[in-house]
Every structure is written in structure tokens, then in C-alpha cells.
């Protein structure tokens, strides 16, 4: 027992020292020559591992951007300063999954515990971005009685418009999509902000509402005992929470099912993320209810769904397919050894490392035989690129799919396939992910040698099994219906309402 306690103590001390070293390194300056080496390393690894690097940008143009960036380094920079110079070039590649990890301060367990006992400051609002403006559209706790529709003009006397312009350069969708940035930027705006400015206990904001300017001081309040008890209750995983994939952070479910009318003819499935967790049980239960009710219409809502599991979307499609189908084309990668570059031991503690070491030969064997060569190209074996049979008694009625600029990655894969197969009517706006596929699958996490910034590189070219449109944009809706900020504030849903009216019109016939 003494030896065990000593091991725990040593691990804790090692962790604290590691965090301290990382934070010191984050604050240290890197010489111009070392910054240039990090740029060269980044480009070299992208050329080695990214299977479609020049999809949306020519090699000549990308060469020029990296060379031009290196010429700007005439003085030392911290890793964070370097990030804000390198990431815009990465974003110009126009691959939505490809992005440097922003170097942020690491927290000790004690610091994390202290933050957990405090309420968020900016996270207690919901936001909306329009051009260079940031609006509050929901005030969850009625903080300072700030009304939805209030624009935040500045934070600590610095104009918000400047932050938006700066952060927008860090974000790209797949290709030349025009809808993704506002959705994603509103979700990550304060991730960038706190990485730059740290976690403060107060913030001074200037606002504008109905032509009237006001100022407020936001505070990071301590949670009450009631709040802490509520947090514990939310963390408990009941059967319902598992099947509907409950997210404690937002106190919401990733998956929801219901009927929209009294006669149960219209079923509605909302999926916020294709997380795969308990998804098979969820879809089986949902489609059993749809079948038993004799529903004629199905609405699948993947708005604001940034993607996730190919397995889940393949399973979902099987409940709607009229005949056997193939979801995706064979997934290409750069070489047969690429799958072995996925950082097998990443984020492993001492005990996990020991276990993984024993299993490593099996892992290498499996990955080696997961690739094959055809027509001079290398592919990775995937279940989703094989023929899949529809589920027995799959839904045969009419399907509508709600999409918007927040529909990304796997959401775009399934909607592109549904549209191509003429299995659904897409309603809303262009998706944030590309119609013709993306590069993701699994990743190789590269660490830049001097700045120590992490660069996850997607290794698989994943494309829906369709005839490509080559627009270099998102999946286009069949019916364009826009949603305004005022719609959100008023809890109106014009996209869903359009579908409900269309169904009512068809029923009336």
C-alpha cells in the first residue's frame, strides 16, 4: 500500500511538473530560424500524409503562401503569436477538418476544480454572428437582464469587430462554402478569446440594444450548493440519457425523437452529433415506433450537426434505403504505412501505455492488412464502402432533411447521398461541409518541433458514393429557407414550418 501511494504521488508530481513546463514553454519566445523550421515541418508533414492537399488550392499558390509567411519572421514570437500567423495559411487550404490546435494555458487539477466550482462568464449566453457583429440571442440566467438581440460592441474596451475579423481568418469550411463560418465562429469565438486573454473573473462589456448603449461588468460567480447538486444529478447516466446521448455541459440531448401531430403521421428525429454512443438502440426504438404508428412522413434534422461517426450515418441510412446501397466510395490515403502514424500511444498514462504495448503487434498487423492497392492508389478498408442491406421494414414514406451551414462532415456525407439517391427533400441552406466529401477519418497528431503546437492531419479521403457535382461547395438544399436572428429569438423555425405546411398541403389532397 505504501508503494502504491508512492507511485500515485510520483505520477501527480510528474503531472504538475509537466504542466508547469508546458506553460513556461508557451510563454517563451522562439527564434525566427526556429519558426521557419516549424513552417517547413508543417508543410512537409501535410505533403506526406494529407491525401487531397491541393483540392481547393494549387501547389504553386500554397508554396507561395508558406514561403511568404517565412519572410515575415524577423523577430522572436511566442507559440500563441506564431499560431495566429500560421493558422490563416492552414485555413487557406480550405479543408474544414485541418487546423492547428491553439496553444493554451494548461491547468492543474486544483485549478480545474476551482473553475468547476464557478459559473461560466461568457458561456452563459448563446450568440449569433452577422458579418463583424456579435449578438446575444439567449441569456440563460437573466444576467444583468441583458435582452436577446443585444449586440456586444466591445470587451474590456477592445472592439468585438476586430476580434471577429482576426478569428475569421483562422476558420475554413470545406472548399468555397459560404455558410459555415458564422455558425462555427459563434461557437469557438470565446475559445480563441480566452486563449488570448486568459480566464478572468470579470469582464467589462459595452452593448447596444434598440439604439441605446449600455455597459455591464460580467462576473464569474461561485456556484451555490444547489448548483453543485444539480451538476452531480446531470452527470448521472440513466438509460434515457444513454440512448438519447445526454450532454451534461449543455443540459441537452444529442438525439431526440417525437411525433409532430396527434395522428402520429409525421415523425421527427433531431441529431445534434453523430456520436455513435448507444445510437443503434436509439434508431431501432425510433423506427419501431414509426412503423407501429404507420407514419407517412419523416423529418431528419441535422442542422448545427458538425458530424461524427460514419458507422452511425450508415446505420441511419439503412432505415430509409429502399434497396441495398453503398454509402461512401473507397477511402484513399497517401501510403500503406499511413495508418501506422495515428499516434497509437497518444494520451496514454503509464498503465494504459503498458497495456497498449502488449497489444501493439496486433494493432500493427490489423492496420497493415486494412490497406490495399488498386490502380496505383492506396485505399483503406471501410465497412461503409461495402454494400449495405436496408433494415427489414425500412421506412418507405416521404423524407425531409433540415440542413444549414452548421451541417458539417458526416452530416454532409449523408445529406449528399440522400439527395443523390432522391431519397429525401433537403430544406434550409447550403451545408457547411462539402457535397463531394472531405478529408478526415482518423488523424496523425503532429507536434511542431519548436513551438510544440499540435497539428492533427486527417488521413482518409471520405467521399459519398455519388456522381460528384464539382462545385467545391456544400450540399445545396432543394428548397431554400433562411432563418434570421429574430426567428431564433422569437423561437420560430421557418425551415421546419415550411416542411409542416408542405405535409399539411399533401394531406389535404
Automatic annotation (TrEMBL):
Residues 236-482 form the Tail specific protease domain. Pfam families: Peptidase_S41. InterPro entries: ClpP/crotonase-like_dom_sf, Tail-specific_protease. SUPFAM superfamilies: ClpP/crotonase. This is S41 family peptidase. The lineage of its organism: Bacteria, Pseudomonadati, Bacteroidota, Flavobacteriia, Flavobacteriales.
Amino acid at each position: 500500500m505504501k508503494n502504491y501511494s508512492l507511485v500515485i504521488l510520483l505520477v501527480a508530481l510528474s503531472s504538475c511538473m509537466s504542466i508547469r513546463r508546458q506553460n513556461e514553454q508557451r510563454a517563451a519566445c522562439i527564434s525566427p530560424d526556429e519558426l521557419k523550421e516549424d513552417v517547413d515541418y508543417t508543410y512537409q508533414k501535410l505533403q506526406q500524409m494529407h491525401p487531397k492537399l491541393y483540392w481547393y488550392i494549387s501547389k504553386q499558390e500554397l508554396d507561395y503562401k508558406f514561403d511568404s509567411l517565412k519572410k515575415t519572421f524577423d523577430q522572436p514570437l511566442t507559440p500563441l503569436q506564431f499560431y495566429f500567423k500560421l493558422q490563416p495559411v492552414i485555413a487557406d487550404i480550405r479543408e474544414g477538418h485541418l487546423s492547428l490546435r491553439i496553444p493554451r494555458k494548461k491547468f492543474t487539477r486544483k485549478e480545474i476544480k476551482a473553475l468547476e466550482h464557478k459559473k461560466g462568464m461568457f458561456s452563459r449566453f448563446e450568440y449569433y454572428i452577422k458579418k463583424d457583429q456579435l449578438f446575444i440571442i439567449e441569456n440563460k440566467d437573466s444576467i444583468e437582464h441583458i435582452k436577446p438581440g443585444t449586440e456586444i460592441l466591445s470587451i474590456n474596451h477592445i472592439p468585438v469587430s476586430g476580434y471577429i475579423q482576426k478569428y475569421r481568418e483562422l476558420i475554413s469550411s470545406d472548399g468555397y462554402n459560404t455558410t459555415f463560418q458564422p455558425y462555427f465562429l459563434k461557437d469557438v469565438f470565446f475559445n480563441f478569446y480566452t486563449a488570448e486573454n486568459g480566464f478572468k473573473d470579470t469582464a467589462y462589456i459595452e452593448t447596444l440594444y434598440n439604439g441605446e448603449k449600455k455597459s455591464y461588468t460580467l462576473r464569474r460567480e461561485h456556484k451555490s450548493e444547489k448548483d453543485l447538486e444539480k451538476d452531480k444529478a446531470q452527470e448521472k447516466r440513466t438509460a434515457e440519457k444513454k440512448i438519447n446521448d445526454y450532454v451534461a455541459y449543455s443540459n441537452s440531448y444529442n438525439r431526440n425523437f417525437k411525433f409532430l401531430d396527434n395522428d402520429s403521421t409525421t415523425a421527427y428525429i433531431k441529431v445534434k452529433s453523430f456520436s455513435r454512443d448507444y445510437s443503434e438502440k436509439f434508431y431501432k426504438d425510433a423506427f419501431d415506433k414509426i412503423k407501429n404508428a404507420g407514419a407517412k412522413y419523416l423529418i431528419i434534422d441535422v442542422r448545427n450537426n458538425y458530424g461524427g461517426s460514419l458507422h452511425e450515418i450508415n446505420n441511419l441510412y439503412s432505415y430509409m434505403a429502399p434497396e441495398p446501397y453503398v454509402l461512401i466510395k473507397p477511402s484513399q490515403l497517401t501510403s500503406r504505412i499511413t495508418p501506422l502514424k495515428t499516434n497509437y500511444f497518444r494520451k496514454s498514462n503509464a498503465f494504459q501505455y503498458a497495456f497498449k504495448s502488449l497489444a501493439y503487434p496486433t494493432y500493427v498487423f490489423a492496420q497493415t492488412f486494412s490497406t490495399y492497392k488498386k490502380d496505383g492508389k492506396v485505399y483503406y478498408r471501410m465497412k461503409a464502402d461495402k454494400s449495405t442491406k436496408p433494415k427489414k421494414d425500412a421506412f418507405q414514406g416521404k423524407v425531409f432533411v433540415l440542413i444549414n451551414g452548421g451541417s458539417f462532415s458526416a452530416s454532409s456525407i449523408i445529406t449528399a447521398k440522400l439527395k443523390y439517391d432522391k431519397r429525401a427533400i433537403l430544406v434550409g441552406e447550403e451545408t457547411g461541409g462539402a457535397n463531394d466529401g472531405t478529408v478526415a477519418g482518423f488523424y496523425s497528431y503532429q507536434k511542431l518541433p519548436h513551438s510544440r503546437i499540435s497539428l492533427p492531419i486527417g488521413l482518409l479521403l471520405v467521399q459519398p458514393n455519388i456522381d460528384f457535382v464539382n462545385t467545391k461547395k456544400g450540399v445545396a438544399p432543394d428548397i431554400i429557407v433562411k432563418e434570421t436572428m429574430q426567428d431564433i429569438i422569437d423561437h420560430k423555425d421557418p425551415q421546419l414550418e415550411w416542411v409542416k405546411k408542405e405535409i399539411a398541403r399533401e394531406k389535404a389532397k
